[in-house]
Amino acid sequence: MSLNGRRLWTAVGAALALVAGIATASNAQDETVASPVASPELAAAEAVNLAGGWVGTWQAAPAAAVANTDGGYVNYAIRNIVHTSIGGQSARIRLANTFSNKPVLMGHVTLAVAESGSGPAAVRGTMRDVTFGGAKSITIPAGAEVLSDPVNLRVPADADLLVTTYTPEPSGPVTHHPLAQQTSYYTQDGDRAAEESGASFTQRTSVWHYVSGVDVRGTAAAGAVVTLGDSITDGADSTPGANHRWPDYLADRLLAQPGPRQLGVLNAGISGNRLLLDGGGFGPNALSRLDRDVLTATGARTVIVLEGINDIQQDPHQTDPQQIIAALRQVVAQAHARGLRVLGGTITPFQGWRVWDETLEATRQAVNEFIRTGGVFDGVVDFDATIRDPKNPLVMRAEFDSGDHLHPNDAGYQAMANAINLRQL
């Protein structure tokens, strides 16, 4: 069987909620992180994190069930490779059974630092068993997610981790994130979760199974930035295994800032995702998954929203900009109710993509005008202006185009990350 394909139920305490104030600033590319403290709540939350609270370092939003997996993956050990944004002195992981109609038994789960991002071997001495309420195994109810106990493992920033799950029994459909842009590994040869060499993990997969998040503690991070989006946020057409999505480049920029104060970056993008409609393997619509994937993310303080292109270009096409605008207003309202600041990303150009026409373009322009001038967001990231061709603003600059005229390439994603004013985070 090929592997290519939150209702939160915790084993330990609930995630720390941050309360952030509203900051308004203009876009700039080279600002040092020095977000103004706009409320006593934010100052208190930052103090907790800086003293050693939990902050998210990596995330992948559960998107769908793997096709034809009604019986689950019996006797499989799956070694997911994930990439950290910030480091810490200990870690905990999240596992999801979101899209199953049956419970799944995790018979053995491990965490280790990867020897490299291109293979299943662990750095010697870093392999750790992961427990849940002190137990080595846990049954995840249908539709639920579990949070592990703290794992005593020093986690580096900007590094690859191995999250390995072993499922000994039949279950229901397997929850996954389809666009990983990262090769992971698996074996059908039983419990190899603790195998340091990775020699048994001879089969490959291009998706992430079960794992949905990694948090760290004992870090100087003041919180996390959550990026809500579609395939452009998910990194479609970026170089596989290189971590060249625009949120990855944003994490690189933040790590390069002087001083110990850092921010985690959590990617809540799902390829094909829409604001208003669910779709196949494209995940629940952004409003319905907002709480699960964004508002309850560990240490969340700022949200960057880049959604709407699929509402416009996918069938059925949404050509009433007010419908998209109303959804964006809801994202902001719900995030503000949780004390998070929200930056709005303008929708990038797509003339030359197979369905482009003037009606769809007019919708994009109207939504972008609202994002830029509506006064609803705490800041604007003008992704459109950043990667469009100045001579023909309806198309992407050739040097930023992956070739399909909708998705950027690595250089385009780098430019998008560079357009974010770090002071607004």
TrEMBL record:
Keyword terms, alphabetized: Signal
Domain of life: Bacteria
Chain ranges of the SGNH hydrolase-type esterase domain: 228-415
Pfam entry (one): Lipase_GDSL_2
Signal sequence residues: 1-25
Alphabetical list of InterPro entries matching this protein: GDSL_Rv0518-like (IPR053140), SGNH_hydro (IPR013830), SGNH_hydro_sf (IPR036514)
Protein name: Lysophospholipase L1
Species whose genome carries this gene: Goodfellowiella coeruleoviolacea
